[in-house]
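> forwarded from #structure-qc
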């Protein structure tokens, strides 16, 4: 593997949940779910410099506590422990994916660290083995090792590659974060929903997100922003929020709506990806 692969930074792309359904809550606390994961070209970058000793993380736009608890360090520790590797690494996280928005930034960062360190430390693990390690960091981390837009079931670890049509998306981040744990534990959340199938989504594989009514009720500002977006396109919630998105056929349409965005929100015009840029070097 060339040094330029590391020197240019490894990509950690964000995702959208184009639909999200809950079937049941397992005894271990995890939820059986169904979702469509769509990769997008909004991404963090992770730079790696080998060390002989410790694991060190530097990051922009993150506080000290966020760095200490960051999934990048957890991912490196999991790989170290699983392979008995005694090498270290200096990581620099260039953060672009908003935190607490349901875009999977922390999970994607963790997957990129495990993928990159497997090469840097010459651990020699297969993609299947890396996926198993990713699951130890978080339930949706293996998706980013899978690396393709997918229909997912189980607790998000069973993937079926799907061909989602080309699309541009306007992603909107309201001025607050939402705790995934809070929304999953909300007493008003409807569980034990009927299973959905591919036939239940539209031509862009977009369908119902069962978390949306809960989030809209608990967060009036998000509800207000969704109402605003509905005047220009069909709004959807990704994950448990707080980010919203709408699909467009071309970039110009999405950009036109972005230019009208309320000033207290942040917006991104992004393209849907068919494959993770992390896997382009395979």
């Amino acid at each position: 593997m060339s040094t330029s692969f590391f020197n240019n930074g490894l990509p950690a792309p964000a995702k959208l949940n184009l639909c999200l359904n809950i079937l049941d809550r397992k005894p271990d606390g995890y939820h059986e779910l169904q979702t469509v994961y769509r990769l997008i070209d909004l991404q963090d970058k992770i730079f790696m410099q080998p060390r002989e000793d410790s694991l060190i993380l530097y990051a922009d736009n993150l506080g000290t506590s966020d760095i200490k608890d960051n999934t990048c360090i957890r991912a490196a520790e999991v790989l170290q422990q699983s392979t008995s590797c005694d090498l270290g690494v200096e990581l620099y996280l260039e953060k672009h994916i908003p935190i607490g928005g349901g875009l999977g930034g922390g999970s994607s960062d963790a997957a990129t660290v495990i993928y990159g360190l497997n090469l840097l430390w010459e651990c020699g693990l297969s993609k299947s083995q890396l996926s198993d390690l990713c699951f130890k960091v978080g339930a949706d981390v293996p998706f980013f090792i899978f690396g393709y837009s997918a229909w997912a079931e189980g607790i998000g670890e069973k993937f079926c590659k799907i061909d989602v049509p080309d699309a541009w998306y306007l992603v909107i981040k309201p001025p607050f974060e939402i705790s995934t744990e809070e929304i999953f534990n909300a007493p008003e959340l409807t569980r034990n929903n009927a299973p959905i199938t591919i036939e239940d989504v539209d031509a862009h594989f977009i369908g119902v997100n069962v978390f949306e009514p809960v989030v809209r009720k608990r967060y009036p500002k998000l509800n207000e922003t969704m109402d605003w977006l509905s005047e220009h396109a069909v709004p959807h919630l990704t994950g448990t929020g707080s980010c919203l998105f709408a699909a467009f056929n071309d970039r110009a349409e999405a950009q036109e709506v972005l230019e009208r965005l309320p000033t207290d929100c942040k917006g991104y015009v992004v393209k849907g990806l068919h494959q993770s840029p992390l896997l382009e070097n395979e």
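QC bot note: The radius of gyration is 19 Å. Residues 3-161 form a domain with the Ribosomal Protein S5; domain 2 fold (CATH 3.30.230.10).
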